[in-house]
Amino acid sequence: MSSFWVLWRKELAGYFLSPVAYVTTAFFLLVMGLVFYLLTGILAAGTPGVGLMNLMFGSPFYWMTQLVVVPVLTMRLFAEERRMGTLETLLTAPITDTQVVAAKFAGVFSFYTIMWIPTALFLVGLQAYAAESPPLDPGVIAAGYFGMLLSGAMYLAIGLLCSLTTSNQIVAAISCFSLLILVLFAGFVEYLTAHPAARILTDLMAPHRHMMDFARGVVDTRPVIYFVSVTIGCLFTAVRLLESRQWR
Description:
The protein is an all-alpha fold. 78% of the residues lie in helices and 0% in strands. It has 12 helices and no strands. It has helices at residues 2-16, 19-44, 52-57, 60-74, 79-84, 87-91, 97-129, 138-164, 169-185, 196-205, 207-215, 221-245. It is globular and about 60 Å long. The model has no long low-confidence stretch (mean pLDDT 80).
């Protein structure tokens, strides 16, 4: 287990030493800052029926950041190791394939979580300095961030799997971006066909609908199981791919 923590610290420290991570974080905070700037205008206009978390996680800017940030953060996880020829060395170390995948995922997920921490300060500032603002509901805020972490874990697991399949970081980023686009637009399948299965697929895989539920403070077990299952499935597949490399 100590090997896992060593590799996890190495992965997390690698992000703080990478200029790409800082540029990505700056882009993320800039976009989210713009979202809160627009949010203050909507709240100041007194638009009825508009919730704070709905505006935050229902904004197109939120999904834009996911499509950009996740591929950039995950593209180096295994692709860089394969390009530099250090993956074989890592696999011969006294650490299991499961620990390798888990540590790399824990590292990128930890950095992803850290990126979101400053956005909580936006909420505090909005509540403190807005002349007329609705009271913040801790339960709704917790549900919104919980849904964000669940969906983020799924996206990062997809990106990790894409990074494992290639030694080119650009290819890994593009393939991850393409898969995230498919997952995102799977929620609009029912608008393309009248087949009954399309509605079931939409209800199951529509990340924007799930996030709107979380943003309203509704924690449904179905999206929780969906996000967790896809995350575990991607990580399990990554472990099996790593194991298959040892038999080549």
